[in-house]
Structure formats: C-alpha cells, structure tokens
Known about the structure:
- The chain starts with a strand and ends with a helix.
- 36% of the residues lie in helices and 20% in strands.
- By secondary structure, the chain is an alpha/beta fold.
- Helix 5 (150-158) packs antiparallel against helix 6 (160-175).
- A hairpin with a 2-residue loop joins strand 6 and strand 7.
- It has helices at residues 12-26, 69-78, 107-110, 118-125, 150-158, 160-175, 184-187, 189-198, 201-210, 227-234, 277-284, 289-296, 312-315, 340-343, 372-387, 412-425, 443-461, and strands at residues 3-8, 32-37, 49-52, 55-58, 82-84, 92-96, 99-103, 219-221, 239-241, 246-252, 255-260, 265-268, 270-273, 303-310, 323-326, 336-339, 353-360, 395-401, 431-433.
- The strands form 5 sheets. The protein has a 7-stranded mixed sheet, with helices on both faces. A 5-stranded parallel sheet has the order 9-2-1-13-19, with helices on one face.
Amino acid sequence: xxxTLVVIGGGIAGLSCAFSAHERLSASSADVRxxxxxxxxxxxxxxxxxxxxxHIFEEGPNAYxxxxxxxxxxxxxxxxxxxxxxxxxxxxxxxxxxELHELSTHPLKLLKSKFLSTTAKLRAAAEPTIxxxxxxxxxxxxxxWGDESVEAFFARRFGPKVAATFAAPLVSxxxxxDPKRLSLASCFPRLAQMEAQHGSIIKGMMAxxxxxxxxxxxxxxxxxxxxxxRALGANAxxxxxxxxxxxxxxxxxxxxxxxxxxxxELLADALCVATPNRHxxxxxxxxxxxVSAPIFKIRSPHLAVVSLIYSREQAALAPLxxxxxxxxxxxxxxxxxxxxxxxxxxxxxxGSLHMRxxxxxxTRPDMAELADDQLAGLAIEELRKLHGFSEKPAHTHVTRWPxxxxxxxxxxxxxxxxxxxxxxxxxxxxIALAGxxxxxxxxxxxxxxxAEAANSLCDRLCP
Length: 463
Ligand SMILES: Cc1cc2nc3c(=O)[nH]c(=O)nc-3n(C[C@H](O)[C@H](O)[C@H](O)COP(=O)(O)OP(=O)(O)OC[C@H]3O[C@@H](n4cnc5c(N)ncnc54)[C@H](O)[C@@H]3O)c2cc1C
C-alpha cells in the first residue's frame, strides 16, 4: 500500500526536505508519496520578493554566501539565473556617531581604524597573547563547557571597547540580535573553533590568509530570491498544496492524523514539521509537549526591512560598497543598510540607488510600535544626514516580520539537544523537525536541516 510522507511548510527547509525525500524514495523500491502543505498562497516562506516599477524588493533574504551542498542542489534544480556580487561589495562600512568608516578584512588593519582609542587598540592587539578558554570537558557547550555570550567572547579576547563597537553590529547583520544574550558557540561556531584550534582569532585569521582562503562572494538570482522556490514549485515531481494550513497533528496508531484548515483530515505515515519555531511548538504542544516546550523558549524578535530607491542623481553620493552596519551607541535607529544596487548592479533600474535598511531586532523592540511611514521617515532622515541626499527616495517599500529570526541565546545548544532527545525517545510515528531555529539561520543551514529531516524519515520508511 502507498505510504505518505507529509512536509508541513514550503519555506527553504520544507522544500529541501520534500525534494531530498522524493529523490531518495524514487531511488528505492519504496512506494511512498511526498506531499507538501503550505499555509500561504505561494512557496518561499521568508524568501519573499516583490516587484514594482521594475525594481526588485527583497523582503527577506537578499543573497546567500558559501552555499551548502543542500542549498546548491535546490538552486541547481530551480535552474534560475544566478548573479555574483560585484567586486565593490567587498567594501564594508561601519557607521558610528553619524559617520561612515570603511572596514578592512585584514585583522591588523582593522585595529588601525580611527574609531578605537589607542588603549583599546593596544588591548585588542594583545589578543594573540590571551590564552584560549579551555575545559577538561571540552570547548563547546554541547561538550559540557559553559556557554559564553558573543559580547563576553569579544570582551575576553579583544577588550570591552572592541566588544562594544563590533559585537553588536556583527550580530545585527545576521541575527538582528543582542550580543549579551546570543551564544557564541551556537551563532558563530567558526570563531569558537578558531580559538580552540589556533588559540587566537587574529592568529586563526592570519592562517586563513596564508592558506589563500578568500571570503566568498555573495550570490543571488537575477530575478530575486523567490524565483528559486517559485521555479522549484512549478517543476516539483511531488504534490504541493498551497493555501492549506495544518491546524493540528495527532498520533493515530502507526500514522499521524493531520487536521487541515480546509476541514479535511489526512493520514501521514511520516511527518516533517518545517514551519517557523512558534508554529512548530504550537502544533506539537498536545502530542509532544517535551519537544514543544523547549522550542517555545526560542525568541524571534520583530524586524522591519525598509527599501528605498533614490534617483540616479543621488546615487553618486553614497560610497560604493556592500553597505554599513551601525554601532549601537544610541546615535542610530538603524541596524544596518545594504547598498543593493552596488552589490548587484545588474538589478539597478536606470542607475538608481537601492538601499535596504534593517530596523528593530532584539535590541530595539520599540521599533515594532512604529507605523510603516514612521519607520521609513527615520530611515530616510538618517541616510540624508549620512550621505547628504538632497532628494527623497522615489519609491519606498516597507516589510514587517513580527517574528523574523530565531535567537540562538545562551543555552541554545542544550536546548536543541533536549529537542532531539525528546523526539528520539518519544513513541510516536516517524516525525522530524526542520527549520532555521535548530542549527543555523542561514539559507544554507536551513536547507541542510531539511535534507537531514528527509534522511531520518526515509531511514524509518525504507530502512
Ligand atoms: C529580513 C530577513 C533577512 C534575511 N537575510 C538572509 C540572507 O541574506 N541570507 C541568508 O542566508 N538568510 C537570511 N535570512 C534567514 C533566512 O531567510 C531564513 O532563516 C530561512 O528562509 C527560513 O526558512 P524556513 O524554511 O526555516 O522557514 P520559513 O521561510 O519561515 O518557512 C516556513 C513556512 O511554513 C509555513 N507554515 C507555517 N505554519 C504552517 C502551517 N501550520 N501549515 C502549513 N504551512 C505553515 C509558512 O507559511 C512558511 O512558508 C533572513 C531572514 C529575514 C527575516
């Protein structure tokens, strides 16, 4: 009899799970049908692109970097045209006290930057002499070593001034998070590994430079990020239903019984829950409370994305580069700005300047209270002061994400272990979780989590 593997959620995690499962099941003699259910009218989840007056507005992610094998596989399958970021995107800026400062990727040049005092620079330069944090139990929280916040890590290695200047912008750019609460080992495992391996971040970075390791360039589809899930959906070799929300999941003998918003009931032999964390926790709260309880603890703060299009005349005022991260010193309402049209010039319409501003996040919950035009007004005024724009933007596009990016706070590694252990010891039909709240928020990590979920379910269905 045909079995059914249901994937709930058509974001990158769900798509990766469904494609991987279908591929593996097709290569086996198993008679299993894959069905993907998505609550919204289109696929992509946070990968959302809107077009207006020829401009491409990325409401969620705008690019990927160093794609994992699983993300690469999805991109290849989609067949969409991919652009590589312009060389000028290597230039990055830090905005402090209303001024832009160019950042160097060379660790020693970074220390020459004029926004650090001589004392702070001397302390930072001593980083290679600061012994690595070690424990007889291991160097990672999962090995029994106490977790350390991103800010504490930077303060310990480079001094409190560097921590205050760089740690917040660093975590803003990826997590829109609070460096005092985020776990270094969970958010930046490569830095933790670098310290363990080289005893120092500066030594580790110098070693990478010596080996000729270059920072990879960002990439994105020519027609916007959502062209990937759109193309995948159009050619999927399995069934996809959109506009269908799963409202309940209950174990029923050897199956999962799913209640759908359409009023239907559906039976699944295996289930992948690839929804955002809060949705997953809610769906599983009755049948798997030990799985849902830790997931409920993961916070995902509000984030606003304000896209502004300036005329060709204004474009020359902004320096060429990727954009700027803003120091959290009370002088700015912005987390960061990406110069979209510098990163991907092919997407610029008539030489216009496209700036994408991030506002809110864990450190600025007050931004969630502002209306769209207030957020846009703050962004426009700050960019006017920073770049001297004499005109207002010709187009403004504001997106709100009430629960944008899950925060990997102190204890996150233990939390995910608890979730895994609770799933392994539960006596329910086959179930797996996928999504950005487990082992990485990037598109790459999210795609990997989907493929891993597919593998674990296929192992159960066709051992
Ligand atoms: C503003 C922003 C910028 C970002 N920038 C980048 C970037 O530049 N690069 C990068 O790598 N990453 C970036 N990220 C992170 C990345 O986009 C996300 O981590 C990733 O897309 C999450 O994918 P997902 O599949 O886990 O979840 P989602 O994309 O949230 O997908 C989950 C899906 O589940 C559906 N769903 C929920 N509940 C149900 C239900 N009950 N029944 C059916 N369906 C349901 C939802 O509708 C949704 O489509 C960014 C994120 C944001 C918010």
